[in-house]
Amino acid sequence: MNLKTQLQNDNITVADNFFYNINRYKEHLYKWNKIHNLTGARDEDTLNEFIYDALYPLTFLPEVKTLLDIGTGAGFPGMILALALPQTEVTLVEPLTKRASFLQFIKADLNLENVTVVKKRVQEMQPKIFDLITSRAVTDTKMLLELSKDFRDENSKLLFYKGERVFDEVLEIKNHKIIERENRHYLLLGEDI
Q: Most buried of the four, 90, 132, 152, 185, by CB within 10 Å?
């Protein structure tokens, strides 16, 4: 099943220009990946699964005005969410130069006014409150909660893209919900989830 059909089947709404932008993103990622090894997604099917994985939470997330993605890497999930949600201000935090440069290139090439790329570790950023904080494959939940403490308040939501270990990571955590999908578990934290 192709990406467009998969999104339509799950009633995932994306921006009008999303498929044009995502195809440009994929073209650039293939080129950069040959030289810089930005991601393990090297073929169309794997890349489409990564993109779908990034977008699936749109089936259960509320609309947000601001989003912080910790450790964006090659753009998962932050850049993909930014492409789908042009009305959301998305801050992508990536300390590695080659990945931050790629994200900056994509921002410029696609003229993404809703994207800010920060080439730092999140701990080095000035505190600022975001509506939603995301992270995929960065560290365990306890450490993500510590890393995100200066960027959230009681109204913020946190969405961490996790695997099977998530159940062990939330034993002492209140106000959480785990949304399961095949090999991916989405950990949603915050008040009134």
A: 90
- Which ranges of 140-182 would DSSP assign to H, the alpha helix? 141-147, 166-169
Torsion angle of C-alpha atoms 13, 134, 162, 140, degrees rounded to 10: 180
CATH number among 3.40.50.2300, 3.40.50.150, 3.40.710.10, 3.20.20.70, domain 3-189? 3.40.50.150
**The predicted structure's pLDDT at residue 139:** 83
- Say if CB 68 and CB 19 are below 8 A apart: no
Tokens read off for 109: 């090439």
**174-187, pLDDT tens digit by residue?**
889 999 988 899 99
- Centre a 10 Å sphere on the Cβ of residue 70 and count the other Cβ atoms it contains: 25
pLDDT at 192: 61
Query: Which strand (E) or helix (H) includes residue 50?
Result: helix 44-55
Max Cα-Cα span within the chain: 45
pTM (predicted TM-score): 0.94
